[in-house]
Amino acid sequence: MSLAEVVNVNEYEARAKQKLSKMFFDYFSTGAEDQWTLQENIRAFGRIRIRPRVLVDVSDVDLSTKVLGYKVSMPIMVAPTGHQKLAHAEGELATARAAAAEDTVMVLSSSANTSLEDVASIGSGIRFFQLYIFKDREYVAEVVRRAERAGYKAIVLTGDVPRLGNRENDIKNRFTLPAHLTVANFVGIGGGTSILTSKTNESSLAAFANAQFDSSLTWKDIAWLKGITSLPILIKGILTGEDAVLAVRSGVAGIMVSNHGARQLDFAPASVSVLEEVVQAVQGRVPVFLDGGVRRGSDVLKALALGAAGVFVGRPVVYGLAVDGEAGVRKVLKILRDEFQVSMMLAGCRRIQDITRSHVLTESELPC
Ligand code: FNR
């Protein structure tokens, strides 16, 4: 089948599987333990119904919106995913070019194989930097300063990795990074990243993370982060109203409702099923974003109707990258954009602000 025949982003997964080694495909595709949350991220969108309004003039539809004050062409953005050179030789550079070309935000992962300066060197595009806080705080502070100097517009602090979740496939495969790749922005940390390229009896990803990540992180560390950067901070990995309140109190500029693509705590709820709880707790004080299981433009409409200011997409972008590099990522973003536009028009929404809570029914609201 030629690429022209790809009609939805799910089709990229099987194609990526054909292209990648089992070790790398498993790294991208699987989740933690029983992978209940992995399936639930998708199923939960399937339980939401859209309430379409008809006879609305949708001859002129505008998908553009603002994220932290920056105009983007659509509320569909690129989530941070690590080790993109395992998917394609051009890795994060290809993804960054595609996101810029589609006029949307890319979040660069702390686990990128490309330095943040190299990614920034492509020029155009709005990029955020996703941050893991390692035990070596001085190193982390320097990376944050580098991101600020290189023009990144926000720090996305990932809060749900005090240690790595049990990713059984990575353990079975004894995941290691090929010798030519590094965690490019943290090469010197912990005496170098050799641990990621050396064979161990476990996933070397887990060995690296569990040795280097600071599992003592608390809300007071947001104050530390605010003290070393003037960039706005988004907190990623919030799944409860309680934590959303603490996040707002700690002074973050936005919240990302996320279960890390089901790679951390299995049996954590699907992100979309707790979105409204978070939105209600936040009471409009900061924007709330969502990732996890977004595979269709209709999913985007559902998330926005439940109060999200935008969504981020992880695996489909990586699969597009694996299959066709920059062009593959662009196609994934284009498909999602087109589907979102169709969903908006068929639901009777001309602008992003027209998408309201009354456009969806959640499971408890479904007629018996
Ligand atoms: C991730 N995710 C992630 N998150 C993060 O904060 N830092 C990271 O380095 C990574 N790396 C990473 C690698 C891979 C292969 C995946 C699939 C995911 C989580 C990611 O940002 C996002 O939360 C999920 O991917 C969203 O779910 P979907 O879109 O993949 O269903």
From TrEMBL:
Location of the protein in the cell: Peroxisome
InterPro entries tied to this protein: Aldolase_TIM (IPR013785), Alpha-hydoxy_acid_DH_FMN (IPR012133), FMN-dep_DH (IPR000262), FMN_HAD (IPR037396), FMN_hydac_DH_AS (IPR008259)
Cofactor names: FMN
EC number: 1.1.3.15
Enzyme class, UniProt record, top EC level: oxidoreductase
Superkingdom as given in the UniProt entry: Eukaryota
Domain named FMN hydroxy acid dehydrogenase: residues: 1-365
PANTHER family: (S)-2-HYDROXY-ACID OXIDASE (PTHR10578:SF126), S -2-HYDROXY-ACID OXIDASE-RELATED (PTHR10578)
Descriptive protein name: (S)-2-hydroxy-acid oxidase
Species of provenance: Riccia sorocarpa
